From TrEMBL:
Topology with respect to the bilayer: Multi-pass membrane protein
Swiss-Prot/TrEMBL keywords: Cell membrane, Membrane, Transmembrane, Transmembrane helix
Lineage: Bacteria, Pseudomonadati, Bacteroidota, Cytophagia, Cytophagales
Protein's name according to its UniProt entry: ABC transporter permease
PANTHER family in UniProt: ABC-TYPE MACROLIDE FAMILY EXPORT SYSTEM PERMEASE COMPONENT 2 (PTHR30572:SF18), MEMBRANE COMPONENT OF TRANSPORTER-RELATED (PTHR30572)
Record organism: Dyadobacter psychrotolerans
Amino acid sequence: MLKNYLKIAFRNIWKNKVFSAINIVGLSIGMAACIIIMLFVSYERSFDKTHTRNIYRLDEVQKFKGMTEPQNVALSMFPMGPMLKNDYPEIEDFCRINNSDKVLIHNKENKAELPHVFWADANFFTMFDYKLISGERSNVLKEPNTTVLTQKTAAKLFGNEYPIGKTITHYGNDTLALKVTGIMEDVPANSHLQFDAIFSFNTIIKPDFMENWGGNWLVTYLELSRNANISELEKKFPAFLQKYMKGDGWKEYELFLQPLTEIHSNSTNITHDYINFQKFDGSYTYIFSVIGIIVLIIACVNFMNLSTARSMGRAKEVGIRKAIGAQRFQLGAQFIGESVMLSFLALILAVLMVKLSLPYVSQFSQRALEFSIFSNPSLLLLVLVGALIIGIFSGLYPAVFLSAFEPIKVLKGTLRIGKSNLRSSLVVAQFSSAVFLIIATAFTLKQLQFMQDKDPGFVKDQVVVIPLDSKSQPKYDALKKELLSGSFVESVTGSGQRLGNNFHQTGVKFQGDGPAKEIASSQVIVDPDYLTLYKIKLIAGRNFKDSPADNSRTYIVNESLAKELLKDQPKQTMQSLIGKPFGFNGMDSLGTIVGVAKDFNFNSLHHKIETLCLFNQKNWGYSEMSVRIKGGDTKQAIASLQSVWNRQVPEKDFTYSFLDQHFAELYKSDRQVSEIVGILAGLAVLVSCLGLFGLASYSAERRIKEIGVRKVLGASVAGIVALLSSDFIRLVVISILIASPLAWWAVNSWLQDFAYRIEIQWWVFAAAGLLAVGIALLTISFQSIKAALVNPVKSLRSE
């Protein structure tokens, strides 16, 4: 019997090639989309899962006066870790980490610039389960001036030589000799902590650091006991802050704990998050999963629709089988078996699609996704069981429907199968999903384009950013002078931080006409040409002057800070701020405000513009140099910059980036989301159209004699095409009416994550609807026109 069922199944597949192909291709696309989404989601959720201890990151909520809104930050204060462990028994241990980027390292023969280096407490390797190849976990960072290198870094510096006990030299603010005490495996890609070497923190720790309450400059991780009550522990933190912080400063802070496994995927609302590799909004993984499942369900719906639509073609088979004694459950099993067979054929094609597309998906997403189905038994079992469930789910309704035919009516030819309301409902569900995704894609692309095109208040094009360190900072003036003398450079400036990043915050003091005002503000060190190079406009006062009198004694504030300073004096103009005493809290004497700059987005558009003061403090040093090059030959301009650098700073390699690329990187996650949603929307539309094509083919085939009669009576080709298309177009229009309000709600909710966002415009919904109707018409018209052009003599002859 099984052999007979298989023979019939293959015969039906071969007999109905078009419908079988539509089912197999549709199911394979849905399966492939689900598998790729599953791999992406699995990778995202695997971050930091290798660590066995109960680790949390200590984060702050800063509520400084003058801020537009409270700010979550990933930084904490140096004394917090040891004092929390001392005061609360549920906190078993702590580890503090500070990072340095682009660190220049030498040994006797080789040098290397390491992208990321951590300074960490001695217990780093006892808290985190990174694999050590050489060295004792509890001792490798115990002594000052010690370091643990990754395999990759060790190979760079020592080649095949055994590095343990060797010395490397770090060029920072002070030149340090560090002894190599351990080698570890390279950090896995699914770790939010990414580093090339770890230096012992006690190398740079000073005794007065323990008094540094209020200075937030490192990241603290806490190991908690397994039975710790997180919410109860967090309730104790206000009393902890009040105990150790002087005065009322503790009221400006809140502390909260973040599980290690959620740092990568649940930190989009946390700023100053400098140590968080490939930070991603975890909510998108749920969205992708839902959309992937929708695409798969649409493919399953196609199978159900086409199977029931072609039920008349198998009615006589069912009637004969029932007449000779076949039971209903046997017929049902046969049809479900055929569905499962199609599902496994689709799976084979889906696996091929995944294998071919995965390298491109990995490159696009910058994730090392792998699909080792045959070397991973659990993954193989999951995929096979998934295909079986899809086959059963897809074939269940057709099996019940077909096996219910009455043999007497079938064999007498009195069985009539009219329009299926369920079939119409499924088409509506399909296209509602597709239209929803089209609208969502349109708005995500519009928001992304808006962020790229919005005037940030400064000009970032043609700006080359060159990082500076302790070796190159003293050469800044010489570099600037020689660069400006070249023919490729328009202007040069220096700054303490890069535009597009979270600027550091500090307390500032202002003495107006009334009582002194103390608030918090973002701040950045700049040289006198900063506003000129970035073409930031002044709305009051003047720019900095390159003179000793201006250095460290003058400030330019932005509009937001100016408004905050004048909040209690609404009748005063911004011009009235010029010449007023202003400076940092804790300084012996205040400087003066010399200018008010028009607000500019120094952070990404996810965040509102905060208060900001710019000051000229050359002796504090700049962390980077910005060079605006003239339009023309960019390659030659970069070569000229490198030539100047090599003459002035021969001991350090020339590295650079373009500022507009840096800003593109800020929106990379948003761009990836929009592209992924767009791809899934395209797949949903494609699979829906495959089903619509199949239904249109069947409808045209079923009504071929009706079409012949209508043509004999004078019906035009256009009229017949309209007749065959009208039912389907009506269903698509209903889909648009259902999808539009749902899409509006979803898009509106998503846009709330952006401080600066587009308006939801009605014409996008109209355009998406017209696109859906156009795609449906294009899909249907091929079969409709083909049927309308058939010679009526031929269609009526075969009665």
